Amino acid sequence: MNKKVIVQVVQHLQPGGIETMALDLMHELSDRADVHILSLEGTASNAIAHWPRLDAKKDNLHFFDKAPGINPQLIWRLHLKMRELNATSVHSHHIGPLFYGGFAAKLAQVESHVHTEHDAWHLNTNDNARLERWLIRTLRPTLVADCDAVAEDLLFHFPQSNPAIILNGIDTNRFVPVSEAKKREQRERLNLPIEGLIIGCAARLETVKGHKYLLHAISKTDDTILALAGDGSLRPSLQKLATKLGIAHRVHFLGAMDDVVPFYQSLDLFCLPSLNEGLPLSPLEAQSCGVPVIITDVGGCRSIVCPRSGCLTPPADSEALRQSILCFQYANQAPTPRQFVLRTGNLEKTARAYFNLLHPPVAEEC
Which superkingdom heads the taxonomic lineage of this protein's source (predicted)? Predict the structure, then answer.
């Protein structure tokens, strides 16, 4: 049997949840299919410079350097690449890739098209909702939501859509717990304090991630240390806020990290104070490393918190974050959340579900 060729279409290849999921699926499906990623925006050199992890997969990454605005010619270019690769299926992520990748797949006569929505809050804009409704009716992809909450939003906007639900998964063989000695070693490697309670957050430093509420919460706790992995446009203002709150000495800005495993392994607690989310990967990654989480109850976050060790808080609520941190700080040791992730957020299970949608098993004749 000829090997399947899966083409994933993404908006860009910058560090983020959707992009990490696309790369993880490429790796996990490599024994069953030749997987390529078409990035609408950016160039290979710039993407690899900002995300060195891409270099190992560069032969299967294709960049189209799309400029802002609508570019119909891009559909033709994508279709030619799909034909060159002999694509047997297309998997688009988010609304822009659905538009360009979906029409390109039609031109290239690729019959199998799966589209995943990783969040739905962009559909609160009427123009986006109308466009996606038209795209779903016209292109007729197999629609997937990455959690129950996104599926509910899709059904609200598109009552006839009937999305499948495939939870995001992470590589539990890569994100693993470590001993206390190894934890101290990882802290030393990252120039973090060896002793003390370290709370971590891995997210882009942008408004939607809600870092300012976490900084305010930390300012009202004693001796806790905050480690922030990630970069973004708000870094200068967040650094100024930490100074204003008198906690600059307790807040460590680590910048963008190509390998976040040592970061999670250095933590006692993980906190993601987002204002909007689909189904974020970072809480799964932290919990797979045995680290309890506190995250805001937005999007699909409720479905990825271990009920025995983690907790949910309302968004934009510094006091609720503070109370949750104090509960963890003064409670007995929380049970490990790793088994929860092995059951609910395993990448192998996610990849198998996607492969079966992209290339449904053919029943053998008697």
Answer: Bacteria
pLDDT class for 15, splitting at 50, 70, 90? confident
Structure token pair of residue 98: 């659905």
Average the pLDDT over 343-356 and give the result: 94
Q: How far apart are CA 202 and CA 281, in angstroms?
A: 10
Lateral strand order in the sheet of 225-229:
251-255, 225-229, 198-202, 269-272, 293-296, 311-313
Sequence-ordered list of residues with C-beta below 8 angstroms from that of 73, at least 6 positions apart, any chain? none
Structure tokens that stand for 267 in this block: 């933590």
344 has a pLDDT exceeding 70: yes
Q: What CATH number is associated with residue 218?
A: 3.40.50.2000
Count of the separate structural domains present in the chain: 2
Q: Are residues 194 and 81 in the same domain?
A: no
Q: Do residue 206 and residue 139 come from a single domain? A: no
Dist CA 43 CA 37 (whole Å): 13
d(CA 336, CA 177): 9
Which residues form the domain of 63? Answer: 4-169+346-358
106 shares a domain with 66? yes
Q: Do 308 and 335 meet the contact criterion of CB atoms below 8 Å apart? A: yes
Whether the CA torsion 20, 24, 27, 29 is positive or negative: it is negative
237 and 350, same domain (yes or no): no
Pairing of strands 269-272, 293-296: parallel
Q: Is the dihedral of CA 151, 157, 161, 162 positive or negative?
A: positive
